[in-house]
Amino acid sequence: MTNHNPQLEEDVLRMFTGTSKYFRHSINRNVLFTDGVRHVAEEGEAFWLIDAIAIWLTDQKFREEAQKDDRIQSLHFWKLTVNEDRSAILTAKADSPEEPFITQAILFTDFPLDSIDIWVGNDGEYWTLYLPSEH
Question: Which of 8, 71, 72, 123 counts the highest number of beta carbons within 10 A?
Answer without folding.
Answer: 72
